[in-house]
Amino acid sequence: MCDTRGDGRLVYDITVEQFGHTFDCAENETILSAALRNRVFLRYGCQHGGCGACKVRLVDGDVELTASSYALPPRERDAGAILVCQSYPVEDCVIDVAEMQLGAEEFFRGDGAVARATVLESVESLTPNVRRVVLRHPDRPMAFVAGQFVNVTVPGHAVARSYSMANGSADTDRIELICKMMPGGLFSRYVDEQARPGDELIVNGPYGLMAIRLSHRDIVMVAGGAGLAPLLAMLTDLADKRSTNRGVTLFFGARSTADLYALAEIAALQDQLPALTFVPVLQAPPPGWTGAVGVVTDALAAHSTVWSSHDAYLCGPPGMVDAARDLLVDRGVRPQNVYADAFVCTGETPAP
Ligand SMILES: Cc1cc2nc3c(=O)[nH]c(=O)nc-3n(C[C@H](O)[C@H](O)[C@H](O)COP(=O)(O)OP(=O)(O)OC[C@H]3O[C@@H](n4cnc5c(N)ncnc54)[C@H](O)[C@@H]3O)c2cc1C
Ligand code: FES
Fold it and tell me: Taking a C-beta distance cutoff of 8 angstroms, is the pair 116, 203 a contact?
């Protein structure tokens, strides 16, 4: 029941339908923060409306949602979905967390994520605006699934930014990130202007459900810019485990040859994965370029492969991810076989 705290702030009851459990949530507190404060667990990732991991259904009550979010298109919002990391209750609420696939044990165990201190090993320029940032775990290893991401606290600020691991999951003692430098971006400015080997960076995670799904279907991967990161991690795992003879076609969209990177790594992966086809796509090709030209979806559409029996993994800017998803679904890929991470900015969340 709606109540007030000693400080006069309103407090609402949030009931999780599946577990018949109620916790309190103050006004100006998100349902996610309240759940974690009350030591119950709701799935989450980026905590800024970008990844969709915290989506639930509002069964009863009402919330104020922060600005429109890429991960919650109007169609889903109208159907009752909310992101608990972006939802402030305005009355008592009942939520259905079925989409999170949480067991009672996981729910009542609370948040297992712990902040870990990492040490910055190196920053390398891969293109004029993409850096490879390597962090090392000094104390204990971090297990993760290729495709997942971490939230890195921006040194000197109480905010975090999401970045996907670009290395394979066998590397439990280090994290390799591929970071696009956003003009004026907080973490970008740290990387380009202040970062020094030996700096301590606080990392939370791993988060996210992006991962290679077991299947007999061939795979199409589409990356734009830094979106190559989780796909490189997945390909590294496929190569390390030599567990597949599935055909894999990797499209990598970039503006010019200067924006292509990790080409030697991709060539090495092709040695280990003979069924890997690499298709770089340039919007502004140099004279003599014989490869694919245009935006990455032009190359997908023009390619001779029939995509309908493929699993698709898409990663990069939201516009590219949406366009590639629409095209592949239009070409017969089943929507449930499309797995995507849109690299939504924290500083600037695009409207759906
Ligand atoms: C699940 C997930 C995984 C991701 N993985 C990666 C990855 O592997 N590699 C990668 O490069 N990116 C990744 N991203 C995206 C990355 O987290 C964002 O680009 C991040 O915001 C960059 O942080 P920043 O501090 O450098 O820039 P921010 O401070 O977030 O700023 C981003 C941009 O927004 C502008 N801006 C800032 N504040 C405002 C404001 N108030 N109003 C309008 N504009 C503003 C800035 O000028 C800048 O151009 C991922 C995102 C998600 C959700
Ligand atoms: S944790 Fe809520 S959208 Fe990512």
Answer: yes
- Identity of the residue numbered 236: T
pTM: 0.88
**C-alpha span between 130 and 151 (Å, rounded):** 18
Which residue, by CA, sits nearest to atom 24 of ligand 1?
Answer: 185
The pairing of beta strand 310-316 with beta strand 338-342: parallel
Dihedral sign, Cα of residue 336, residue 341, residue 346, residue 350: negative
Confidence label for 175 from pLDDT (cuts 50, 70 and 90)? very high
Rounded Cα–Cα distance for residues 74 and 69 (Å): 9
53 lines ligand 2 (CB under 6 A): yes
3-state secondary structure 327-344: HHHHCCCCHHHEEEEECC
- Ramachandran class of 236: left when φ > 0, alpha when ψ lies in -120 to 50, beta otherwise: alpha
d(C-alpha 311, C-alpha 77), whole Å: 27
CA 77 – CA 69 distance, rounded (Å):
10
163 lines ligand 1 (CB under 6 A): yes
Per-residue pLDDT tens digits for 297-349: 999 999 988 999 999 999 999 899 999 999 999 999 999 999 988 877 766 54
- Ranking 12-21, 150-159, 236-245 by mean pLDDT, the lowest is 236-245
Residue nearest to atom 20 of ligand 1 (CA): 345
Residues, the chain: 352
CA–CA dist 287, 334 (Å, integer): 38
Helix or strand holding residue 266 (H, E) = helix 263-272
